[in-house]
Amino acid sequence: MNINDLNTIEQMEQFLTGSQAVAFLVASSKDECYLGIQRTLVKFRYTSLNKRSKGVVVRFLIKITGYSRQQITRLVKQYRDTGKIERQQRTYQGFERLYTNEDIRLLAALDERHNTLSGPATKKLCERANSLFNQTQYQRLAGISVAHLYNLRKSQSYLRQRYTFEKTRPKVALIGIRKKPRANGEPGFIRIDTVHQGDQDKQKGVYHINAVDEVTQFEVVCTVEKISEQYLMPAIEQLLDCFPFVIQGFHSDNGSEYINYKVAALLEKLLIEFTKSRSRQTNDNALAESKNGSVVRKLFGYAHIPQRWAPLINEFNHNTLFPYINYHRPCFFPKTITDGKGKDKKIYPYEGMMTPYDKLKSIENAKIYLKPDITFEILDKAALSQNDDQAAEQLQKERAKLFKTINERDLKSG
C-alpha cells in the first residue's frame, strides 16, 4: 500500500498501529518534503478536523517524515496561518569585523620589534603610539582589549606574518647588611644580579651585570668578560653613573662577585647602603631576577658568546638597549592593598602600567632625586627623540648587526 492510497483518518490510524504495510515515498529535497506535508494537510482538510483527528494527522506526519513533533507543529502552524508551507531560509548578519588584516599585520610587526611583550604592555605601546606619538595607524589597536589581542595573535594572518646557567655560590662574608631594602617610594635603591652567557668547550661566555631600580624599574645592563675585580669594578662604576638619579641603596644576592671588600669600599665611598639577600627569602632579589628573563635572556638568549665580545656587547647595551628599555618599554607596577584581615596583597593594575621614565616623572617632587647635572628637560629630549616603534626597530637592527658580526668572525676564526 502506498501512502497516497490513504484516504481516511481510519486508514491513517491503522497505518500508525502497524496493521497496514506501507511503502514510503522518500523526498529528494526539503522543499519536496514540505510540499508533501502540505498536500497531506489539504487532502485531509486538516483545519476542519476535530482535535483527535488532528492528533492522528500530526503523528502520521512525524512517522513518514522523521521530523520532531516540534518541527511538525511549526509547519502545521505555518499552514494554518498562510494556507501553505514554504521553506524559510534565513541569512544571519555576522558581527562586523573591527580589526582588519592591516591591523593584524601592524600588531605582528609591533611584536617583532618589541620581542612579543605581554598583552597589557603591547596594548600600552599601541596607546602611546596613537596618543603620544600621533601614529594614527594604531588608532583601532589602541582600543583593543587584552583578551582579544591574544586572539589576534592566534589568527592565521598574524601567524603568517611571524616566523618566529651557572648558579653563583653563596659565600659567608661579613660584608653588607643582610636585609631587604626599604625604598619607601623613593628612586635610587637598585637590585643587581649576574647573568652568565653559557659555556662551550670548557670556555666561559660573557657575563651580563643587570641592575634595576626598585621603584621606577630603571634598568642598566653592563657586559663584562669575567666577573673578576679587574672587569667588575669598572662595570659597577659605569652602571651607577648611567642612572639619572642619585643611588641610595645597592642590593645583591650572596655571590662573591659582589660580596667583597672592593665593592664594599666603592659603595661606602659613594655613601650607598650595601644590603644582601636573606637566607630562604627568595623574593629579596626577585625584581632583578625577573628582568634577567624578560630582558637579558629575551635579547641575548642562552647560547654561548665568547668573552672577547664583551666590549662590543657593552657598547650595544649603552647606546641602544638602555634608551629602549627605560624610555619606550612599558612595565607593570605593583599596588599594595590590605584586606579585612590586615593582610597585604600586591596587584598589578593595567592603569598603572608605564615606562620606567614615566614612573620616575610621576613621583612627587621627582626633581630632588636627580643628579646635579641632570634635568627633566634633558631627559625629555632623549625620551621623545624617537617614538616607541622607531626605538624598537633600532634595537632589532643593532642586535641583528651585533650577532652577525659575532657569528661571522667566529666562523672565520674557527
Comma- or semicolon-separated keywords:
414 residues, 3 domains, six-stranded mixed beta sheet, 10 strands, 46% helix
Descriptive notes:
The termini are far apart. Helix 1 packs across helix 3 (51-65), helix 3 (51-65) packs across helix 4 and helix 12 (310-327) runs antiparallel to helix 15 (388-413). A hairpin with a 2-residue loop joins strand 3 (199-200) and strand 4. Helix content is 46%, strand content 10%. The protein is an alpha/beta fold and 414 residues long. The chain contains 15 helices and 10 strands. The protein folds into 3 domains: 3-82, no CATH class; 101-161, no CATH class; 177-371, Nucleotidyltransferase, domain 5 (2-Layer Sandwich). The strands form 3 sheets. The protein has a 6-stranded mixed β-sheet with strand order 1-8-7-2-5-6, sandwiched between helices. The model has no long low-confidence stretch (mean pLDDT 87).
Tell me the strand percentage band: 5-15%
* Quantity of strands, as a count: 10
Low-confidence stretches: none
Strand arrangement within the widest β-sheet reads: 1-8-7-2-5-6
Counted up, domains total: 3
The fourth-level CATH homologous superfamily of the largest domain is Ribonuclease H-like superfamily/Ribonuclease H
Instruction: Report the radius of gyration as a whole number of Å.
Output: 36 Å
CATH architecture of the largest domain: 2-Layer Sandwich
Order of helices and strands: HHHHHHHHEEEEEEHEHEHHEEHHH
Helix content: 40-55%
- Which overall shape is indicated by the principal axes computed on the Cα atoms? elongated
- Supply the CATH class of the largest domain: Alpha Beta
| Estimated structural class | alpha/beta
Count of discrete alpha- or pi-helical segments spanning 4 or more residues: 15
Mean pLDDT: 87
